[in-house]
What we know:
single chain; alpha/beta
Amino acid sequence: xxxxxxxxxxxxxxxxxxxxxxxxxxxxxxxxxxxxxxxxxxxxxxxxxxxxxxxxxxxxxxxxxxxxxxxxxxxxxxxxxxxxxxxxxxxxxxxxxxxxxxxxxxxxxxxxxxxxxxxxxxxxxxxxxxxxxxxxxxxxxxxxxxxxxxxxxxxxxxxxxxxxxxxxxxxxxxxxxxxxxxxxxxxxxxxxxxxxxxxxxxxxxxxxxxxxxxxxxxxxxxxxxxxxxxxxxxxxxxxxxxxxxxxxxxxxxxxxxxxxxxxxxxxxxxxxxxxxxxxxxxxxxxxxxxxxxxxxxxxxxxxxxxxxxxxxxxxxxxxxxxxxxxxxxxxxxxxxxxxxxxxxxxxxxxxxxxxxxxxxxxxxxxxxxxxxxxxxxxxxxxxxxxxxxxxxxxxxxxxxxxxxxxxxxxxxxxxxxxxxxxxxxxxxxxxxxxxxxxxxxxxxxxxxxxxxxxxxxxxxxxxxxxxxxxxxxxxxxxxxxxxx
Length: 484
């Protein structure tokens, strides 16, 4: 390619970029952050939201859609060239064609939906654009919890992390790592090798806390479980150390302390500056039922985690984030997911439990500025409702196909059999969720995971949009005012 061709290509790229910037500037944009802890359903939520808007889904409580004011919805190239694009089409194929839940969020991704709509106001229709970009940013909730590290030094973080290992639900999982720490009472011959062993054992402990029946949520640093292309880097090769190690193994302590600071500088701060600080709205998805399945320890852990999530949206005045974030995120929706796993008569109780967890967390966090709301949703409804006859009583139940390997009442399902299930009633008093259950007979709650639904078809053979519970209410809170 000649120099003239190179210059011509550069000029063309500059013109294209200028045109894109002009269009983006003249079209209002709402950046919606979607996050949640592991298994909360972030990918499913985004896929269902897009599918219902693109396919004209049943959104009776989303005013602009219900009243026919949305003329069109279309996917456009997302504006951040350095961020992976959310793979909507692949996720739809998994849900609709294969009846498989999409893979979990492992990294940040983004997608742009452009809506052309008719405003309610004649004045607005004349003088204001009737087009809006919705940029959806998907990121793991574990990354959000890294905010708690920003204002801590290595000694403070180590102390809090080691204190967590003394909780009954974590002690056995932390044993291998803690035993290794006890060997570091003196300077090791190879500090790098010791750092790698400690980081590997600490990472395994975090993974075990999240896996299986423990369902624990407080697991920073977030990139240890989702390292991506940073796997094996020095910034992810550290672990907490007791303060006593500073005297016995000063060189190792200094190395891990430096890497802790590097993690904050290289991983945490860029994420919040480049992505989190640019959000306008946020939804936090919470798998309350998974915590209820795991018991009181997981519930207490979730409550503490939600307190840290709240801190992320309202940092203290002395935090470095305060000057960056300001009051940009003006609405935060907390959604208890998988509402289809219980009968609709329990939905108010599910909302009340999440509201209770957030209220108690908010008492310890001075959270103000953003408007918040709590709802129970199911972005994709995998069950239907029915009634069972049990000992002559009519009992509310749900119908669905459990995922292969799910068990209940001694039965293990193969992923093909539809069942009717009474999962148990949620308590009227949210405070009752903390009651300690010592035997299986005392635990009436057991929530299974179900396969995605088989989509209905119209008489003409057209596939309908993904069914949901209160996805329209979520959209109205997050976006309704922007389409007024």
